[in-house]
Amino acid sequence: MGVLSESYHTSQLYHSTKNQAAFKQQEKRLRETPDLPGNLSFSIRLLSNEEIEKCMDPNSLYALDFLRLQYTPPPPLNLVMTTSALDKYDQCFRLLLRIVRMLFVVNHQLPRHGLPGVWESKSFRNEAHHFVSAVSSYFFDSGIGETWTAFEAALNGLERRMRAEDASSASTNSSFGSLVTEGLESVRAAHEECLDRILFALLLRRRQAQVMKLLEEIFETILAFAKRANDHQLSGGGAATVQRVSPDEAREIREMYMLFRSKVNVFMTVCRGLLGKRGGYGSRKAGGGSSLFAAAAAEKGGFVRSSDEENTIDRLLLKLEMNGYYSAPVATDLGLEGVGGS
């Protein structure tokens, strides 16, 4: 079994539908053909020559950008998961693949106790681990988890109202539409709105391109440090006592650390400038999505967030620092320098 097959067959959705008759028919078909629903599979992304060059470097942040998920939604799901929605899923997949890789790097490829003779390398390792962990936690928990939970609550509320309306119609001969006024178009709009919220939280909207560029530069600095540390370890031949870093290498690592601190400070300054700005995903005239979220919010006592809610970038800032650490001067053997400029 591949990664996708294992993920699908161990998912909550898979096990929650195992006892349904329709599922048993699908299970029989899946045993006869190895295809996953919608022919879900990995595929190769079409890239420009410049993007291909980036992918050729295994130490680059973009090394896995050639990989994408291929999915063909079956009817009537294709009316909800449109081409536009699939493109948004692909944007999220590309970013999250980078995040998972960065988590692996900071957890397994950075020197836990630093490099001999470069005390800054231990600080670099700890701060890089904290930064990547905080960003990934914000993306997965606030950016995706909470938003998708709100969308699921909206769908569950719609299903409950449909069942209640069916039961009421059967007993009182009342007309349809007394409890449910939304249609398939409303579900599509709510799904698109959910994805727009996620893209906004993941800093993937077009007007957030400069913020994402800063984040990518920070990740690239961490990857460069990981490569330098790995090269130094390999040059020692795997000896129990790692040889000291040469003066030139030590200076390069210190400069990487200063660059990392500087870019993190700029990134946080830009994020502070985003506080209070709204996503803009609730202003579309297509309608439908907001009404579905609003109906779920009314049913849940306002639990589901409205489309006009401000962004949650303050949560990321809180995860990254609570005491002005990155805006303070940093001391290295290069001298005491202010991070982020005057």
Automatic annotation (TrEMBL):
Residues 1-326 form the Gamma tubulin complex component C-terminal domain. InterPro entries: GCP, GCP_C, GCP_C_sf. Belongs to the TUBGCP family. Keywords: Cytoplasm, Cytoskeleton, Microtubule. It is found in: Cytoplasm, Cytoskeleton, Microtubule organizing center. One of its GO terms (cellular component) is gamma-tubulin complex. GO terms for biological process: cytoplasmic microtubule organization; meiotic cell cycle; microtubule nucleation; mitotic cell cycle; spindle assembly. The keyword Ubl conjugation does not apply. It comes from the Eukaryota. One of its GO terms (molecular function) is microtubule minus-end binding. This is Spindle pole body component. It comes from Botryosphaeria parva (strain UCR-NP2). The keyword Cell membrane does not apply. Its main location: cytoplasm.
